[in-house]
Amino acid sequence: MRMLPGHSAPHDLTYGDVFLTPSYSNVGSRFDVDLTTADGTGSTLPLVVANMTAISGRRMAETVARRGGLAVLPQDVPLDQVRRTIEQVKSAHPVLETPVTVAGDDTVHTVLTLIEKRSHGAAVVLSGQRPIGVVTRADCVGVDQFAQARDVMTPDPTVLTLDVLQGPDALERAYEAQESKRRRFAPVVDEQGHLAGVLTKVGALRSSIYSPTVDAAGRLRVAAAVGVNGDVATRARGLLEAGADVLVVDTAHGHQAKMIDALHAVRDLDPGVPVVAGNVVTADGVRDLVQAGADIVKVGVGPGAMCTTRMMTAVGRPQFSAVAECAAAAREVGAHVWADGGIRHPRDVALALAAGASQVMVGSWFAGTYESPGDLHRDSDGRAYKESFGMASARAVAARTSMDATAFARARKSLYEEGISSSRMYLDPDRPGVEDLLDHITAGLRSACTYACATTLGEFADRALVGLQSRAGYDEGRPLPAGW
Predict the structure, then answer these.
(1) Are 68 and 221 in contact (CB under 8 A)?
(2) From the CB of residue 479, how many other CB atoms can be counted at a distance below 10 Å?
(3) With contact defined as beta carbons under 8 Å apart, do 259 and 289 qualify?
(4) Rounded to an integer, what distance in angstroms lies between the CA atom of residue 109 and that of residue 114?
(5) All structural domains of the chain
(6) Predicted structure pTM score
(7) Tens digit of pLDDT for each residue in 103-136?
(8) Bridging pattern class, strands 154-155 and 130-136
(9) Which active-site residues does the annotation give?
């Protein structure tokens, strides 16, 4: 990254304080840009889902990995549940989406409850393991909630077989097969006619653009977090045995003795996977954590939408400057950083990567999607939302300390919080699924790379030309959807 001449700042900067300047470019198309990361995680898209209970779970992990990203499972989820989640993610198909399935005698109420777990908006009606129909949200409008699925389904759906995924033009053929029948959704069956997954028209398009994040066996990758308290080694060993592809040692204040001890405990296990640690905002923090065993350091204190740390404690640092300084320190010692928090727009992702981050961690922005773990609610106006909360909030602390020895110990900890305990994250009607947001983000990021004459993230970080702007300059760049 280079700064425009005369654009040195007398103070730290956040994403809104800076902009990217176009350079001469011979990159002809945004599809010529390779977004594969170089930090050893295997990601082909530099986006990580934050290890927040209300955001990262099985549906989120498999969906994001299918498009090249990585999700981190939270540290306060019981180990047996994490083990099941990792197994489910690993068993998910790297191209086909996991279907929502119902039986013919299930009620419309049940169908509507399950459909909202996935963004493809349909459920496959099964007889045994064979698809006999498809039910969409539209099929259930104005229908008695106790009617049966077989009464409202579209029978004899367009069914694809697994061989439609074979060959260089497989995805185009799968798309055309649905287009010719005017379908946007098709069950896919194996040789026995049993349901193997589903493929949407837009899913076929996405699979032609994104490459899944997979391990050596071709299974989707998933990361998992461990805290710095308790028996760190036992938890980390359990995550490794469960098949976690990346370990994230996580605490709000990462530059502390407990983190160093936790990293030593993890390194003593000889994990064989990348180890991430954080959070810090200084070069010294990066160097100390790398020396203790971290391959990647998470950067960010206080920029998250659910975090009140800066207002409560005055501790933190504007995120762009923090990422730039920490990334430079990491390069000196052969490590990498993830920019964690403060992402509101696709431009912020581009700026974090220009500052030198290998990946960008996103939390609250992904909370308001079909794939986040929470139940879908509707407000009095009928707008859909999910509940979210910060991982240092009283709600999260209560869950994390539920196994403490006494009620008194739990109550003492609940007195203090540095996060929002409940917030409504509304689904964007235009982008209600996490894949919609990935499209939105990567469209901006790929285009930013072409402006910088970069076909890789490494080239982008080297060639990005950054300038400073006033608040008026930032506002000038905002669209005016309502007109003048």
Answers:
(1) no
(2) 5
(3) yes
(4) 9
(5) 2-93+214-476 (3.20.20.70), 101-201 (3.10.580.10)
(6) 0.90
(7) 999 999 999 999 988 888 899 999 999 999 999 9
(8) antiparallel
(9) 307
